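Predict structure. Chain length: 395.
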Amino acid sequence: MAHKNKTIAIIVAAGRGSRAGAGGPKQYRDLAGRAVISRTAAAFLDHPEIDAVRTIIHRDDFDEYERAMAALIGDRKLMAPVTGGAERQDSVRLGLESIGDDAPARVLIHDAARPFVDAATISRVIASLDDHDGAIAALPVHDTIKRADGDMVETTVPRDALWRAQTPQGFRFDKILAAHRAAEGKVLTDDAAVAEAAGITVKLVAGSPDNMKITQAEDFGMAELILGRKKEPMEYRTGHGFDVHAFEDGDAVIICGVEIAHDKKLKGHSDADVGMHALTDAIFGALGEGDIGDHFPPSDSQWKGAPSRIFLEKARDRVADRGGRITHCDVTLMCEAPKIGPHRDKMRGALAEILNVDTSRISVKATTTEQLGFTGRREGIAAMATATVALPEPS
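Prediction complete.
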């Protein structure tokens, strides 16, 4: 039996988000110092009419989920996440099934990639469920719509009755659960389509232009503009880093997270990733928090042979802890060999993945010293890095 006044929100976050570019699933990527999914979940956890929030995640993402949601885990309204399915529709059904033993009267289904849903939109959807079995946030279409044949205009489509569907999409719980069970194996575009296929009438309620869905890589730029209207002023800081490592006998070097075959390796207490060390120092420098040695002393045996991504992740997390975001990084590698050019894009991708930023925000360059100095004599590699960080202005 459904609880008469209970409303649960399901946040769907099991997708891979490949269209959003490098940097991992978009729901876990940084947006102005906070993961996208954390912003989304907070909107529902903070809403007085939402009794509980259930997240649906990919089976490989539990560690990433805990990192992204660290500030919210422990909230009494946040239920443990459950594993999704192969398609979004499967994930929603599994999410609905997971709350069936404590069935609410109403359920709201929302995409994790819509972090700017506002309380008023959530309230409008909930209120509409008093008189309707389904309700969705939506916006009327104002642009002229063309139907095409290939890349040629075929006809103009009347827009008077057209709406752009958003989430949350709300339903009477028992109705939408039955509809999803009946739709298993079919491919439908959203939960409203699942409801329509089951004969459920769905009410349109006003959405919000800010309630955008992050889909493409460039959408993160638009999202930051929206946040700029909503958040406190930010200040921008630049930090610099420099590191040197000598060669020793070996068969490969690790630079910016990429292993490159070579007739030597770099000597160091950790894995001696000279590029990542310089970049870590640059981020700590922008924060005014010392350097890599202050946080990971070389005298500490636990860091012997450690992968340098641990150091860079700590710098990334310190930026997030202070409510900031990394806006750009530039690494210059100085060596005669190995050749860096063939590996630059892979290096950029590796750094972008660690820092939870788009690859377009990472630059990796290489130069020689015209056979001058220790790098010219092929005795080692030097690296310089610059990092730009946005932090909330002191009050």
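Summary: The longest helix spans residues 274-287.
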